[in-house]
Design a protein that fits this description.
It contains eight helices and two strands. The chain is mainly α. It has a two-stranded antiparallel sheet with strand order 1-2.
Length: 151
């Protein structure tokens, strides 16, 4: 049953990304182009998508945290941690990558289903980056999070 729920959840997530056009790098880059506010070309529509996602997920996270477990499995909310250098650097690298190509991991995987070349290239680069991180950081123990240790 957990595999079926994971499949259904993934399909709903992918459908939402497709319907909201978050799988279209041009749409995402139009949202991220804040200079477009001055030019009148900025596309704020994805802010509504993100707001809708937060409106649904925030109460669900709260309920799961109060219950001590998620509806279909163990608690998946990481413990609160301070902002550290690794988190800040990772967030900056993620933001730069998203701003350069208009893809982040979820929409890129969804876009693979459309067979677009940009999605394939991004996905391959993402896997390469993950492999480099594992080769460099994980052997030193930097890649092992508290969640990985608990699993």
């Amino acid at each position: 049953m957990p595999v079926v729920m994971a499949l259904v959840t993934g399909l709903v997530f992918g459908a939402g990304l497709t319907i909201s056009q978050m799988v279209d790098p041009a749409k995402v880059l139009g949202f991220l182009d804040f200079a477009g506010i001055v030019r009148g070309t900025w596309d704020p529509s994805l802010a509504f998508v993100m707001g809708g996602a937060l409106a649904v997920s925030a109460p669900a996270y709260y309920v799961a945290q109060q219950r001590g477990r998620a509806a279909l499995g163990p608690l998946f909310i990481p413990p609160r941690r301070r902002l550290d250098k690794r988190l800040a650097v990772g967030a900056v690298v993620f933001g730069i990558g998203w701003g350069l190509v208009g893809f982040c991991p979820g929409p890129a995987v969804t876009a693979l289903g459309f067979g677009t070349g940009n999605a394939v290239i991004f996905f391959a680069a993402m896997l390469g980056g993950m492999a480099i991180y594992e080769a460099i950081a994980a052997p030193r123990g930097a890649g092992v999070s508290q969640l990985d240790q608990a699993a």
